[in-house]
């Protein structure tokens, strides 16, 4: 893969850095011969400059810049500090992950056909609309002509500025949607209606792959649940502090990618234990005292009022029936409950922390392809159960 970015190369001599501070538009790529190499080409190095990746210092401080689309690599020989600035945060993340995987000793497959001369074709914009095409790759923003592509099955909208997905895309039989690297709208209204497309019967039946890497996602939208046939969900490099328990309702999920977030645990649901592939590297499973979002919610609960109980009853009814409603059709005070609702591990009824307890266990799941920190013995799973055993028993009897 080729990366276009602005690069500054400075020589490190003892603790000092020598050279211009200027960033030069450059092409960067990784090649594999006997080892992996990071290659750079720009107006200063027209013949290219090559660094052995085995000599890179992966300094975590440099990676804290990543969320703003910047990376820095320091090499031991030649002793250079490379600073890279990307327009696309997604590409910055891709390069960082590739470098990290190589230094971790993983076998990274590098496309041999890549070379900087191929760049032009790679970046070509598909602008001649073919209404019968089944694949579309967009740039910059959503183009409303997409809505007329009735056979569309793959829609790629990477690195778009302030991407708004119109509700009508839900009428297209899309199987794979990729919005990685795109900017989410900032206005409250645009955010409220952002996921409305998921409520349409067509796409909720056809979509099997949803990629949302590097979009600064802070919470998983509950509308994901409308996508009943979802098999691959990619949430890498976001700002997720937890995965809500409702994710366990995705019964067809096979591949879950949630690397580079802030997850301290995974909700214990059978669908997440029987995955084919999971990537949860670079999260917060090592935290000794993780911030448990369910406990934090519970601590903030004041005495329940009748009004609040009514809201809870309405919410549990909604969860049991789960009509494909747009977010605005559900009363706003109920929205936040989606983040805290989960099934009791004993009676399998929906519960909220108001009526439940949580606990956690650690174990190594038997997932064939699992990418996690090699320093961990297992993953931490979070479990919910009813506080009131009488209610729980009653539920069990009623449903057994
Ligand atoms: Zn229960």
Automatic annotation (TrEMBL):
PANTHER family: LEUCINE-RICH REPEAT-CONTAINING PROTEIN, PTHR48051. InterPro entries: LRR_dom_sf, LRR_domain-containing. This is Leucine-rich repeat protein. It comes from Aphis gossypii. Keywords: Leucine-rich repeat, Repeat. GO terms for cellular component: cytoplasm.
């Amino acid at each position: 893969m080729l990366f276009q970015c602005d690069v500054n190369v400075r020589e490190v001599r003892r603790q000092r850095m020598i050279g211009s501070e200027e960033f030069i538009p450059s092409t960067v790529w990784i090649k594999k011969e006997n080892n992996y190499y990071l290659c750079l080409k720009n107006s200063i190095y027209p013949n290219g400059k090559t660094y052995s990746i085995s000599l890179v210092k992966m300094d975590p401080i440099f990676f804290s810049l990543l969320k703003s689309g910047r990376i820095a690599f320091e090499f031991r020989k030649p002793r250079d500090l490379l600073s890279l600035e990307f327009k696309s945060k997604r590409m910055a993340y891709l390069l960082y992950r590739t470098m990290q995987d190589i230094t971790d000793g993983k076998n990274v497959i590098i496309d041999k056909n890549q070379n900087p001369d191929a760049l032009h074709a790679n970046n070509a914009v598909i602008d001649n609309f073919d209404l019968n095409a089944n694949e579309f790759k967009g740039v910059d923003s959503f183009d409303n002509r997409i809505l007329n592509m009735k056979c569309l099955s793959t829609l790629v909208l990477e690195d778009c500025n302030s991407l708004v997905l119109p509700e009508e895309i839900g009428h297209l039989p899309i199987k794979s949607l990729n919005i990685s690297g795109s900017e989410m709208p900032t206005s409250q209204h645009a955010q409220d209606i952002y996921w409305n497309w998921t409520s349409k019967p067509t796409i909720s039946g056809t979509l099997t792959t949803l990629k949302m890497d590097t979009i600064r996602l802070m919470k998983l939208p509950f509308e994901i649940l409308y996508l009943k046939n979802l098999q691959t969900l990619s949430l890498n490099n976001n700002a997720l502090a937890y995965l809500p328990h409702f994710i366990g309702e995705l019964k067809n999920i096979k591949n879950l990618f949630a690397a580079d977030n802030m997850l301290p645990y995974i909700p214990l649901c059978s669908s997440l234990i029987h995955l084919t592939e999971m990537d949860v590297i670079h999260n917060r499973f090592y935290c000794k005292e993780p911030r448990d979002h369910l406990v934090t919610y519970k601590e903030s609960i004041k005495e329940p009022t009748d009004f609040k109980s009514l809201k809870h009853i309405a919410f549990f009814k909604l969860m049991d029936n789960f009509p494909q409603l747009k977010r605005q059709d559900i009363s706003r005070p109920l929205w936040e409950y989606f983040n805290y609702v989960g099934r009791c591990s004993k009676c399998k009824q929906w519960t909220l922390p108001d009526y439940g307890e949580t606990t956690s266990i650690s174990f190594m799941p038997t997932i064939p392809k699992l990418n996690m920190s090699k320093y961990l013995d297992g993953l931490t799973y979070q479990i919910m159960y009813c506080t009131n055993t009488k209610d729980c028993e009653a539920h069990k009897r009623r449903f057994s």
